[in-house]
Amino acid sequence: YQAKMDFALKLGYAGDQIQAVLNKLGADALINDILAELVRLGNKSESEGQSSASSTTGTLVPRGPCPKEIASPELSLEDEVVDNSDNLRPIVIDGSNVAMSHGNKEGFSCRGIQLAVDWFLEKGHKDITVFVPAWRKEQSRPDAPITDQEILRKLEKEKILVFTPSRRVQGRRVVCYDDRFIVKLAFDSDGIIVSNDNYRDLQNEKPEWKKFIEERLLMYSFVNDKFMPPDDPLGRHGPSLENFLRKRPVIPEHKKQPCPYGKKCTYGHKCKYYHPERANQPQRSVADELRISAKL
């Protein structure tokens, strides 16, 4: 009896449990039978303890972190922040550029503006502004055809579209430069410019506008009626589209392979590897590099 008692105690079972089992099975019971009974009693007491805990607290608290957090801690951060509209940058759309692009440069297609607006609304953006010259409200002419013109009125009522001012002086139309409206609003609101125009004339006006346009211009393509911005708006080594549209990045960028030549690399912006020393420099063309070196 004492030998079996000591054996079970060494295995970590409580003394009262061992005594209850030995009293039930008898001192002549086999060790295997005693262990089987002890295991059964242990499982039973554990299940009773869990049921009592659930009845008092109502919920079971898992031990340790959940598998989702172990697998990818970024996912929980993404779920919390991606849907937060406060983290999304304001969007300023060049309406004329988008409409002419969707009209294949042959006409002003207002449906293209609606497609672009819908794409950003589906992404959760609420601060969207479209600029269109006021003379586009006039009746369509053979030299300047406009399709789906009622969309402009609809977006204006929704306070998404803004007409840049224009007027007639002695039969001549005086038009304000809508591109300046677009860049100025995007710069002041720290937003994104949606256009395929590079605004080179405005880049030369102010150095801060030049840097802003280089870093915040989102180009796009239309595939039939599908609005498609690029997944890498600033190039291969730049941020992803999801992070580009946000004030704080929520999806970690893929690790970039550093260039084996480092600062001695002679490929310039055409190098397919990552250069940490060039991270904050704009991707200049070869012609721009030659001009700068000539000035120096």
UniProtKB/TrEMBL annotation:
UniProt-recorded Gene Ontology molecular function terms: hydrolase activity; mRNA binding; RNA endonuclease activity; zinc ion binding
Highest taxon in the source lineage: Eukaryota
Keyword terms, alphabetized: Endonuclease, Hydrolase, Magnesium, Metal-binding, Nuclease, Zinc, Zinc-finger
Pfam families in alphabetical order: RNase_Zc3h12a (PF11977), UBA_6 (PF18039)
InterPro entries (alphabetical): Rege-1_UBA-like (IPR040546), RNase_Zc3h12_NYN (IPR021869), ZC3H12/N4BP1_RNase_Reg (IPR051101), Znf_CCCH (IPR000571)
Cofactor(s) demanded: Mg(2+)
Gene3D superfamilies reported for this sequence: 3.40.50.11980
Recorded GO CC terms: cytoplasmic ribonucleoprotein granule; nucleus
Compositionally biased tracts (Low complexity): 48-59
Keyword Membrane included in the entry's annotation: no
Zinc finger boundaries on the chain: C3H1-type: 253-278
CDD domains listed in its UniProt record: PIN_Zc3h12-like
Identification of the protein by name: Putative ribonuclease ZC3H12B
Species, as recorded: Pelecanus crispus (Dalmatian pelican)
Organism lineage: Eukaryota, Metazoa, Chordata, Craniata, Vertebrata
